[in-house]
What does this fold into?
Amino acid sequence: MNTDVLLPTKENIDKVGRLLRDGQIAAIPTETVYGLAANALDGNSVKNIFSAKGRPMDNPLIVHISDFSQIEKFSLVSDIPEKAYMLTEKFWPGPLTIIMPKGSAVPNEVSAGLDTVAVRLPAHPVARAVIKAADRPLAAPSANTSGSPSPTSSAHVLHDLNGKIPAILDGGLCEVGVESTVVTLVGDCPTLLRPGGVTLEQLQTVIGKVNVSDAVLNKLRDGEKAESPGMKYKHYAPKANLILVRSDDDKYIKYVNAHSTALVGALCYDEDITELSVKCFPFGKKSDCAEQANRLFDALREIDRTNIQTVYGRCPDTHGMAMAVYNRLVRAAGFEVIELA
Ligand code: TXA
Ligand code: MG
It folds into this structure.
């Protein structure tokens, strides 16, 4: 199959809309990461996503809409919780996915057999235009090969899925750079399942208490059930061995330089570059978590373009937007963290 990379002209958006109505799949830009879309109301179309990505069928997909009214129009949710109105009022369109009780129209392929469904109204104008052109909600996971970092450019999508999908709409670089915040409103207390561009603190300001699922910051113990199936899978890891180093600036620099060889690298802050004697993969300024989120996945992919074998990574804290960066980094490192007292 030939994979066309298309500029997001009206004509091309209509073309992708037709493709999706026909049961095919296509990659589309969103403000978080690129998504691999299919008609969310048709289980057979959705199956194509799983095979192109090599995604386990028990990992459910997010349903993307272009207008809040589509939740009812397409019977996506059986009962919209009060707190969903409060959250969407404040954060939609935007990088927030809300888990709600599943409606009758959502096929099992989308929800992976769960009785809940994840819904998001993206902010990216091209994403919304494609949903409108397709005239139906779109199921879309990140448009990467399962396990690798999510794609933040059309080049990343092409690298992973060239020859496996008919089209990629090129919307340039993604603004947020990590996947959406996922919060579930099913259960006794709202629970954060994945940190992203909308922070825990922002959610709490609007709906009060929000729990943080254990798997957000910690490794699941053997046999422990993931509240969000995606969290049990290995994620984002480069081919090199990534190890996070939790320490102050000086100790990080000294530690990495003491281990310097031609096969060692550093996933570091911009300020570290001049201090380090190893190959650097910078992912943003130390004080700018939004920039770190924006650049992290490209930096992880950059490691794979070299023959570096061991990478020592900076370890951010977990407040605000830094929680999303930490969550992705610690998974990429397989939860290997060195503590330097
Ligand atoms: O920013 C994003 O969310 C991007 C763009 C394309 O919108 N999409 C994305 O999708 O990251 P994906 O499939 O890579 O991640 C969706 C996550 C997975 O961890 C999945 O397990 C979880 O959401 N999820 C989906 N439906 C769920 C449900 N009903 N209950 C619990 N977790 C769910
Ligand atoms: Mg993904």
Summary: The mean pLDDT is 96. The first strand starts at residue 4 and ends at 6.
